[in-house]
Design a protein that fits this description.
alpha+beta, 177 residues, Protein Transport Mog1p, Chain A, seven-stranded antiparallel beta sheet, 10 strands, three-stranded antiparallel beta sheet, 4 helices
């Protein structure tokens, strides 16, 4: 009986030490934005910032960044609406030829137009997907943009050291209606 109690105490101590040093798994945070008609599942609660787009209309950004000493986890989604319906040709054609990418040492690995389907209604929306690599650091970023009429949902995640969580996050962003 004393041996069973000692083993149970030792097991409890070991589990307690593991939780103390490693930490509990991160909880997830389900973002639902009725205003911008989308949802996204973050690994943890994101920081929220409010600003304005180039037309002076509201823009909201949700960002989650975890520094792990030698690398950083990064998840981000921003949403804004404009006065007129967005044209996929104007938004997506030539997007990879943006000189800012080259100036910042960003190489486009693959990109292209995709279609996203709304969960509730099944309507199809134009979208653009891009995978980039920062030349100096070899940082991989996944980035998608969805056009929903007058609104734009822009989201991305760092892929190089956390491909699983980043892929889950990228797949979690959904248009609601």
């Amino acid at each position: 009986m004393k041996i069973k109690i000692a083993v149970a105490l030792a097991t409890g101590l070991v589990v307690g030490l593991i939780v103390w040093f490693v930490g509990l798994p991160e909880h997830s945070y389900q973002l639902v934005s009725p205003e911008y008609n989308f949802s996204a599942a973050f690994p943890d609660a994101p920081a929220i910032t409010h600003s304005q787009n180039d037309e002076g209309l509201p823009k909201t950004e949700w960002t989650l960044k975890h520094d792990h000493m030698t690398w950083t986890e990064y998840f981000d989604v921003s949403a804004t609406c404009y006065n007129e319906t967005l044209d996929p040709a104007k938004e997506f054609d030539g997007a990879d030829a943006d000189p800012a990418l080259l100036l910042n040492g960003i190489h486009v690995l693959k990109s292209g137009r995709i279609t996203v389907q709304a969960l509730e209604t099944g309507r199809e929306l134009p979208a653009y997907s891009r995978m980039t690599e920062e030349t100096a650091t070899k940082t991989l970023m996944a980035h998608n943009v969805i056009l929903d009429g007058r609104c734009m949902i822009d989201y991305g995640a760092r892929m190089d050291r956390n491909e699983g969580p980043a892929s889950l996050y990228m797949g979690s962003v959904k248009i609601l209606k």
